[in-house]
Write a structure and sequence with these properties.
The chain contains 9 helices and 12 strands. The chain is α/β, with parallel strands linked by helices and 284 residues long.
Amino acid sequence: MKLSCTPFSLGHSFRDGTMNLRKFISYCAEQGLDGIDLLDSECYPWSWNSPDDLAHYKEWLGEAGLELAAYSCSNNFAVTDPAKHQGQVELVKRSIERTAESGTTVLRIFGGYHAIAGGEKEMTTERGIPLVIKGIEGCLQKASDYRVILALENHGQLPGFSRDSRQILDHFRSPWLKTTFDVGNYTGQSMPEDENPVQAYEVLREDIAHVHLKDNRTPVFDLTRRREPCVCGLGLTPLKEFVSRLNADGGTGFGSLEYSTTPALPELEGVTMSLSYLKSIAHA
């Protein structure tokens, strides 16, 4: 498994101006990573906080010897208003074009948000999955035309469980629709109950285009939450077992750190510690 990092891991630093894309690329190279993820410039403008970023990021990646692991969109197909739904389809289509321009073939997309994960008040799995399928149907031809794989993340609970992802993937059975397998989301805050990530991997292993790596734990700082983020290797997520299983299956793609800040540590320190742990298990 090759290692990457997403700018989301240092999102607070990007927003307060202490981090920018060029510094982020240099930091990832200094950490001995193989690549980075990029966040879509329309969906995450804060990660493109310099006028030079769009013009020079490919040059900076080349100088640093890093690959572009994936491009990431932020969409929500689980909306009932037809105009809003079509707006989300158009958003993903624009992101497909930017992905192709960026040089990677993988675009992380979301399905949508269940009511308990911040979605519309009446949004359930039964209502949401058909809307997600409809949204993907509206984007899949564009993805094929541009040779971009839509990598659907288990995020927002639509899909959440591996069975939800499997249902959507089996509906299409397309080489242009795969999954972003977020190992930490299976036991995350937005889930109503845990799913064993290693068992989820067995359900989806043939259709994984990209991997997100994170950890979470039983809350210490906010006891109203079901889970809270923590440094990789210190929580409940079976990262070592998962990576071992992935490597045993010949996994040669990217696993990208998607760290969420914890009050226990400064953000950069938490990211550096998480990357150190992931490097220790990446080839174990």
